[in-house]
Structure prediction request, 107 residues.
Amino acid sequence: PLIDSPCDWEDNEITISPTDACLEGHFPDQPVVPSVHLITLILDRILAKYPGYQLNNVRRIKFMAPINPPARLRFQFSMNDKRVCQFKCFNSEALSCQGKMLFELKR
Prediction:
């Protein structure tokens, strides 16, 4: 499976309003949260938890459904001893995206 079942998941929540700057021009008649913004939100939360690390690469990300504002998002992530971080993003209770990122110690 894309996501294993680690025992130590970190939970975070964020609300994206219909007036959020990330939505400007994306798309005018039917706003959708850009995937790059979503990944940035997830990465920011992971790096806040692990400030001594930096992103090495993105192993994979799977998007299951678009996120339309207003949206209350819940992120879960867990880092293993090999510095592979698995994450999930839920919109309400629906899984919107999941993936794995590899981190390394900051130099």
About this structure: The chain has one helix and five strands. The two ends are 32 Å apart (CA to CA).
